[in-house]
Amino acid sequence: MLFASKDEIAARLNGIATQVNGQVKLENADRFRDELLDELLQNAVFNPRPEIKGFARFLIKSAALELGAVSASIQDLYDARGRGECSGFTVPALNIRGLPYELSRAIFRTAKKKNTGAFIFEIAKSEIDYTFQPPHEFAPVILAAAIKEGYKGPVFIQGDHFQVNAKNYHADRGKEMGSLKELIRQAVSAGFYNIDIDTSTLVDLDKPNVVEEQRLNFEVGAELTQIVRDLEPEGITISVGGEIGEVGKDNSTEEELRAYMDHFNATLEAARPGSRGISKISIQTGTSHGGVPLPDGSVAEVALDFATLEKLSRVSRESYGLAGAVQHGASTLPQEMFSKFAELETAEIHLATDFQNMIYESRHFPADFKQEIYEHLRSKFASEKKADQTDEQFIYKTRKKGFGEFKARFWELPEETRAAIGRELEGKIDFLFDTLNVGNTQDLVAKTVTPVAVPPNLQVEIDACS
Q1: Which residues are 94's β-sheet partners?
Q2: Cα torsion 251, 255, 261, 266: sign
C-alpha cells in the first residue's frame, strides 16, 4: 500500500509510535515490526511523493536506532586487527543487488544463528546506477531487514568501488571529481560509515617507475579521503579502503603496495596533519568481477594467487597497521577455496555475483518473468554485445541490469516466491560465514566497536528523494 499523505502514515502509527520534538518513540515494537514495517518499506522505496517517501525512510531509521540496529563504522575492529589483537577470520562484504530485502533478511538471520557481528552490507557505485538503489534508499532497506529479523548491534553499510572513471577524469577532472564527491556526500548522509575509494583506475603502467605509476592513485585517493573526513559525523571515524590494483588487471606486488602506502600517507599528512588514513587495501590476485563467462555461459576457472594475497595482507598489517588485504571478485570461486581466505589472514572479501546467479537460477524464480527480462536486455542493451560473445555470455554479463530495469516487478513477486529464494540465499550465507570463520564474532565486535547513534534528519531524507 502506497500512502497518499503523511497524515495516513500518522494514523497508522496510532498505538504503535509517537513523534515527540521531531523524534520517534516506539510504543509497541512488535506491532511496528509485524503490522507496519513492510508497508513503510514499500513507501520508502516506491512512493512517488518525496515528502512521504522521505518520512517513511525517517521512520525506519528512527525505529532501527531505538531497537538497537545502528549504522556503524568497522574502523575500530580493523584497527584492532592491525595491532594483532584479533585474527583468523575474513569479513564478508556482501553486495546487495537483487531482492535486497530478502537477501538482507537472510544475512541477518544467519548472523543471529551463528552469533556473527563481523559482516558488511555494500553497494558499488556502478551497482547504485544499474540497480536503481541510491544511498538514501539502500540504507533503510538494510535497517528494515535488521528490524524484521530482530537483529541488534552495529550494522556496517559500505560504499564499494567509489571509483574514478579514468577516461572521464582525464577529459574533465573537475566534473568527474565533483560527481564522486557528491556521491560520497550522499552516502555519508545516508549512513554509509564505510567507504572504499577506488582510484586504482588511474594507475599508469607506462610511467618510468612504480611511484610514478601509482602517483595519481595515491594523490587522488588522499584527496577523496580528506572529503570523507570532512563529512564524518561527530564521534565517527569512517573506515576508508584504498586500492592498488584494478580488479581484472595485473596482479599486485609488494613494491606497488609500499609505493602507494608510503606516498598516500605522506600526501594525506601534508594536506591534513594528523588525519586518519585507510584501514585496508584492495589488491589484485587474478580474479575479475563476476568471473569470466565461457561461450556456454559457465564461468572459467581462476588461478588465484594466494601467495600474493597472504604476503601483501601481512605486509599491510605489519608495516602499516592496516587490517590486511581485501579480495574482490570472489563470489564465483570454487567452494573449496573459501576456507583459504581466513587461513591466510585476508581482512575482507567482496561477494556479489553468486547471489545474483542464485536468484535468476532458482527453481522458484518464475521462468516467464526471467524470459521477459532477458528479452528486454537483448533489445535495450544490444549495443553492448561484443562481436565474439555468444548469447549466453551476453546474458550472463548483462542480467545484473535486470534488477533495476524491473525493480518494481522484483519487489512484487509473490511473498512465497521471495521467501523461498531467501531461504536458498540463506544456505549460501551459512556456508560463507562458516568457511570465512566469522561465527562467534559478535562479542569481538561488541568489544571493539562502539556505535554512535546519529538520529536521522527528516528534511535530509525528504530532500534526498527530490
Answers
A1: 121, 351
A2: negative
Domain with residues 72-359+415-458, CATH architecture? Alpha-Beta Barrel (3.20)
Q: Which of 63-67, 250-254, 296-300 has the lowest mean pLDDT?
A: 296-300
In the chain, % helix, strand, coil (3-state, to 5) comes to 55, 10, 30
Look at strands 280-283 and 239-243 and give their pairing: parallel
Torsion of CA 305, 310, 316, 319, to 10 degrees: -130
Cβ-proximal residues to 151 (8 Å cutoff; 6+ apart), any chain: 69, 108, 111, 112, 145
Can you give the pLDDT at residue 288?
53
Q: How far is CA 384 from CA 185, 234, 299, 398, in A?
A: 31, 45, 20, 9
Side chain identity at residue 252, one-letter code: S
Angle at 21 between CA 20 and CA 25, to 5 degrees: 30
Inter-axis angle of helices 306-320 and 75-82, nearest 10: 90
Kindly state the greatest CA–CA separation across the chain. Answer: 69
Query: 31-35, 51-55, 283-287: which range is least confident on average?
Result: 283-287
Model pLDDT for residues 215-237, shown as the tens digit of each residue? 999 999 999 999 999 999 999 99
H or E stretch covering 17? strand 17-20
Q: Is the pTM of this model over 0.90?
A: yes
Q: Which part of the chain is CATH 3.20.20.70?
A: 72-359+415-458
